[in-house]
């Protein structure tokens, strides 16, 4: 696995050097997005490509179509987040009325790969990717106690789609923000580079090598400051019905000064072994926590760190005078999702029929401890905009 990532990381550094030698401006989103796509193609599907240069590759084209189809900017994503019960209606509108089939080309690509693998049989060269792992578990020649229940075609496609959706935007965005922070803090960048020189040689980077790079946990500080996903909140005094969505306000927790003093500052030392031991591990929720923690966490961190090693061996990030170096909070007009948490059924003194008396007040971002009796949170990006009390 780390061999695939090293190959893609070397391509990433090569493409940066080519652009620099040509005097071209490097668009971080493009190069890191291409890198993430290359890693997914190799590790998940066994496809070798360089999407940073070849955007017309069929796999890249189909994958980008799917990514645009499920973009958070899409109106139907907003509708389904607020009212998942409308899934049948939205699906009908998309497929029958608007005839949008963003997932179809990608699904067909994955099915072709599966059919090719099965037709190759045992004589073919052994593939070492996630898709092959799924197919191996379905191997009917294995003893029954070692064989998984056969997955349906939709289940295999679902797993393949989840790998793409979960590994593309998150990885490329984290690399982009990490590069930005290193450019703003050259003294931190120098420490990272020096650690790479002290701990590693000039060759490929292994999983064991990554574990030696303690200061490269600078990536965790990047994830703390700029999260790549939204979160949810729950009122602990109420029982949520089965299937209810529960949002944890990750941004609020990661910027709570009780756990992370001076949260607006970029301080990688927060994640040293000594400092981490002084606070609860559940305060760092960028990958979730517990048995349902992100299944791709180790792969994502290894991917990001190996990429940074290859890039920082050859490239230095610096501030430029023609770029505004500040983060601007984003609030999308009308793209607001309402999550309603109802009172406990046994609390007869508070009924939903009294919703006409609901009160609303605006809130700033901050610690949840300061917000009591919350029934509904309205989210736009990472800012809590509105509180609704149904009492």
UniProtKB/TrEMBL annotation:
Q: What's one GO MF term for it?
A: heme binding
Q: Which residues cross the membrane?
A: none
Iron recorded as keyword: yes
| One Pfam entry name | p450
- PROSITE patterns linked: CYTOCHROME_P450
Q: Domain of life here?
A: Eukaryota
* InterPro entries per record: Cyt_P450, Cyt_P450_CS, Cyt_P450_E_grp-I, Cyt_P450_sf, Cytochrome_P450_3A
Which cofactors, by name? heme
Q: Which UniProt keywords apply?
A: Heme, Iron, Metal-binding, Monooxygenase, Oxidoreductase
Q: Which residues bind heme?
A: 294
UniProt record similarity statement = Belongs to the cytochrome P450 family.
Protein's job? Cytochromes P450 are a group of heme-thiolate monooxygenases. They oxidize a variety of structurally unrelated compounds, including steroids, fatty acids, and xenobiotics.
**What protein name applies here?**
Cytochrome P450
């Amino acid at each position: 696995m780390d061999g695939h990532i090293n190959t893609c990381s070397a391509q990433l550094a090569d493409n940066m050097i080519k652009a620099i030698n040509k005097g071209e401006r490097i668009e971080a989103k493009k190069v890191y997005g291409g890198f993430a796509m290359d890693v997914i193609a190799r590790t998940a599907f066994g496809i070798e490509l360089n999407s940073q240069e070849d955007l017309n590759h069929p796999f890249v084209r189909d994958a980008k179509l799917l990514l645009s189809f499920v973009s958070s900017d899409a109106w139907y994503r907003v509708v389904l987040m607020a009212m998942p019960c409308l899934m049948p209606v939205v699906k009908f509108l998309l497929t029958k009325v608007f005839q949008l089939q963003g997932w179809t080309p990608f699904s067909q690509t994955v099915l072709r790969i599966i059919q090719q693998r099965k037709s190759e049989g045992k004589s073919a060269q052994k593939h070492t990717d996630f898709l092959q792992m799924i197919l191996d578990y379905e191997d009917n020649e294995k003893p029954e106690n070692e064989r998984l229940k056969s997955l349906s075609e939709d289940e295999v496609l679902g797993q393949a789609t989840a790998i793409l959706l979960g590994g593309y935007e998150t990885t490329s965005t984290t690399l982009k923000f990490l590069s930005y922070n290193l450019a703003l803090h050259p003294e931190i960048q120098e420490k990272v580079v020096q650690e790479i020189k002290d701990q590693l040689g000039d060759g490929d980077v292994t999983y064991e090598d990554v574990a030696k790079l303690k200061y490269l946990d600078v990536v965790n500080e990047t994830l703390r400051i700029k999260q790549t996903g939204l979160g949810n909140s729950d009122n602990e005094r109420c029982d949520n019905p089965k299937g209810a969505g529960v949002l944890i306000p990750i941004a609020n927790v990661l910027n709570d000064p009780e756990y992370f003093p001076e949260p607006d500052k970029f301080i990688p030392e927060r994640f040293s072994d000594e400092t981490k031991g002084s606070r609860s591990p559940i305060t760092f929720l960028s990958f979730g926590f517990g048995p349902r923690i992100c299944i791709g966490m180790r792969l994502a961190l290894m991917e990001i760190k190996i990429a940074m090693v290859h890039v920082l061996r050859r490239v230095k990030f610096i501030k430029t005078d023609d770029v505004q170096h500040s983060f601007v909070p984003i609030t999308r007009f009308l793209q607001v999702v309402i999550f309603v948490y109802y009172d406990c059924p046994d609390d007869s003194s508070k009924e939903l029929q009294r919703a006409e008396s609901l009160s609303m007040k605006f809130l700033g971002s901050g610690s949840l401890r300061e917000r009591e009796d919350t029934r509904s949170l309205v989210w736009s990006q990472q800012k809590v905009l509105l509180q609704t009390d149904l009492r």
